[in-house]
Amino acid sequence: HPLNVKKEKLFFCLFRSSDLIQRALMDNDFMKHLEHGQILTIMDCMRPTSLTKGCCVIQEGDDGSTVYVLEEGMVEVTKEGKKLCSIGPGKVFGELAILYNCTRTATVTALTDIKLWAIDRQDFQTIMMRTGLIKYSQY
Ligand code: CMP
């Protein structure tokens, strides 16, 4: 039945996306030490967005409010107009301003149409703090 095929596809896409997000978080130097529960909660709070080629995702010097996981496409990282690197699917970016409470350290531009998962600073910090507090209260 076509509806069942659609459901299967949707299920597959969700499964694939959550797998990608989980791998991306565990691949990131700052996030690989998170507990499994924290990773699951972050995944729960992430929402999908898409942007077209050429869009500026992050502007150097801005206040940062979002951490991203790239699902599809490529982005370029530049600092003071100089190219630092390109980032492909399955990578976290935009984490530094949130983790260090500083302004955006670089500009990130979409080299192609892109699909992203995004989590707000507030949610991100609440998850970190809540699990921190729970841990603390156990001692
Ligand atoms: P943030 O500073 O929040 O916003 C810009 C993002 O670009 C930054 O987080 C990192 O995720 C990324 N970034 C900054 N510098 C580099 C670099 N040298 N190599 C790769 N990614 C970087």
Give me the secondary-structure topology.
Elements: H1 2-27, H2 36-45, E1 47-51, E2 56-58, E3 66-72, E4 75-79, E5 82-87, E6 92-93, H3 96-100, E7 107-110, E8 114-120, H4 121-137
Antiparallel strand pairs: 1-8, 2-7, 3-6, 3-8, 4-5, 4-7
Bound molecules: adenosine-3',5'-cyclic-monophosphate.
The site of adenosine-3',5'-cyclic-monophosphate (CMP) has 14 residues, from strand 5 and helix 3.
Keywords: ATP-binding, cGMP, cGMP-binding, Kinase, Nucleotide-binding, Serine/threonine-protein kinase, Transferase
GO molecular function, one term: cGMP binding
Domain Cyclic nucleotide-binding: 30-139
Give an overview in words:
There is one protein chain. The protein is globular, with a radius of gyration of 16 Å. α2 runs antiparallel to α4. The chain is built from four helices and eight strands; from the N terminus they run ααββββββαββα. The strands form two sheets. The protein has a four-stranded antiparallel beta sheet. The protein has a four-stranded antiparallel beta sheet with strand order 2-7-4-5, with no helix packed on it. Helix content is 42%, strand content 28%. The protein starts with a helix and ends with a helix. It has a single domain (2-137), classed as Jelly Rolls (Sandwich), CATH 2.60.120. It has helices spanning 2-27, 36-45, 96-100, 121-137; strands at 47-51, 56-58, 66-72, 75-79, 82-87, 92-93, 107-110, 114-120. By secondary structure, it is of the alpha+beta class. The longest helix is centred in the N-terminal third of the chain and has 26 residues, at 2-27. Adenosine-3',5'-cyclic-monophosphate is lined by residues 58, 64, 77, 84-85, 93-97, 104-106, 108.
